[in-house]
Write a structure and sequence with these properties.
By secondary structure, the chain is an all-alpha fold. The protein is 77% helix and 0% strand. It contains 22 helices and no strands. The relative contact order is 0.14.
């Protein structure tokens, strides 16, 4: 349609994308509405066909999120999150900063060995329950959970989708990622906690009356359904084992998550009369974060539009032209460019574009492991760059969606103003690490 009117598809796609992005930044209209509306305009204008738009949607991501949302909802009904919240608070004597730090460590470790989206799906209800009990502002805890999930997920092959894509394309192993990325990630985690302590940690104070109430609580009283809890533990264990073995089983995470959700719903309803089944299932599906899921649908289509017209490839090529075929400069441009770009749009299509671009550089820089420093630069930049804005990574949006459903607003611009400088600090540490480790 746009070509028939003499309008360049490039400018239509770019214009729609950045207009949607600016409107989302204002937060005056729900982000899912804007993403879906502008995605629809992209298809109606003819920049993308309906088939291309459907193909652009990452149903593996959506299935993983939807399945884990159902599992988390059913698990929430057992009271286990309240139990964990109270026990966590009691172990640190209900002191806010030690509690925040403990939650960050747990989030980072789980994100490294599981999946950062799964981790925040499990940890966010704990944070909300805990801060409600202590009458604390949940925002600082949620902010640090987002950062911890993306930092931890950077350390391993399975922690973040960009790493999975890079590992699949290059045959780099789980141990390769752990050996080369765990070291800088550990330093970045510690370095990030220092400014967070200055911004929030030292100011967090719990009223003695509230801490006294928490310390006097019987955490076990919050477990309302022990039978269902055993089923939840069984299913979550199976799902996590499935994620770990997914590559060897040739299964996608979405298949594992949705099957786990169905199994848990089946086990839950075994003890209920037939007439209650419909209501239980309807409730579980209704509690999924559909705003977040549909935002992803629109976002995938919008990004596919600018990818089709060549914007992402153009930016990637310009990054490489700046280096004039200098290997050291190329690695650092990939690191910084990936970080900044991944903070603006989802890092998955950018990494998908950069993988063939880096592979094409083999005749210049050498085959085999000669390109490894470029892969590590891409992994660090893309994964950590996701911390730069609220839409930079899937985990960020999941936390924001759950928080919003519980009356806690994580706004785009305030998040950006604090998150982007912290992200740049982490990339500066990666810069030093890459120069020291790979570019002697």
């Amino acid at each position: 349609m746009v070509e028939a009117l003499g309008v360049s598809p490039f400018w239509v796609a770019v214009g729609l994308f950045f207009t949607a992005y600016l409107i989302i930044m204002t937060e005056q209209i729900n982000r899912a509405i804007i993403a879906l509306l502008f995605a629809g305009l992209l298809v109606i204008s003819g920049v993308l066909s309906q088939e291309e738009a459907i193909k652009a949607v990452d149903f593996n991501t959506l299935g993983l999120l939807a399945g884990m949302m159902v599992i988390v909802h059913v698990t929430t009904k057992t009271g286990v999150f309240e139990y964990i919240a109270i026990r966590s608070a009691q172990l640190v004597k209900a002191r806010p900063w030690p509690l925040m730090l403990a939650l960050c460590v747990v989030t980072a470790i789980c994100s490294a060995f599981l999946d950062n989206v799964t981790t925040v799906l499990l940890i966010t209800p704990v944070i909300l329950s805990l801060t409600k009990t202590l009458e604390q502002n949940p925002y600082p805890y949620l902010f640090t959970a987002i950062f911890s999930s993306n930092i931890g997920g950077t350390a391993t092959l399975i922690g973040d989708p960009p790493n999975i894509m890079i590992g699949s394309a290059t045959h780099l192993t789980f141990n390769d990622f752990l050996i080369n990325l765990a070291e800088p990630v550990s330093v970045i985690f510690i370095a990030t906690m220092l400014p967070i302590y200055v911004i929030w940690g030292r100011k967090l104070v719990a009223h003695p009356e509230h801490t006294g109430k928490v310390l006097a609580m019987r955490a076990a009283d919050n477990i309302t359904d022990r039978r269902l809890l055993k089923h939840c533990i069984l299913v979550i264990g199976l799902v996590l084992a499935g994620f770990t073995l997914a590559h060897s089983l040739h299964l996608e995470p979405a298949t594992i998550a949705i099957t786990g959700a169905a199994l848990l719903l089946f086990l839950e309803n075994l003890s209920h009369p037939r007439e209650d089944h419909h209501g239980n299932v309807h409730e579980a599906f209704a509690e999924a974060e559909w705003v977040t899921l549909f935002f992803f649908v629109g976002l995938f289509i919008l990004v596919a539009g600018v990818e089709k017209v060549g914007l992402i490839h153009m930016i990637s090529e310009k990054m490489l032209e700046l280096t004039d075929s200098n290997f050291d400069a190329t690695a650092l441009v990939i690191l910084w460019g990936s970080a900044v770009f991944s903070a603006i749009v989802d890092n998955i299509p950018f990494v998908a574009t950069m993988i063939p671009t880096i592979k094409a550089m083999a005749p210049t820089f050498g085959d085999g492991h000669a390109l490894d420093p470029l892969w590590w630069a891409l992994a660090l930049g893309a994964c950590l760059g996701g911390n730069g804005s609220l839409i930079g990574a899937s985990a960020n949006l999941v936390v924001a969606g759950i928080a919003e459903k519980n009356g806690v607003q994580i706004r785009f611009v305030p998040f950006l103003l604090r998150a982007f400088p912290l992200m740049l600090m982490s990339i500066a540490i990666c810069h030093v690490y890459i120069v020291w480790r790979f570019l002697p």
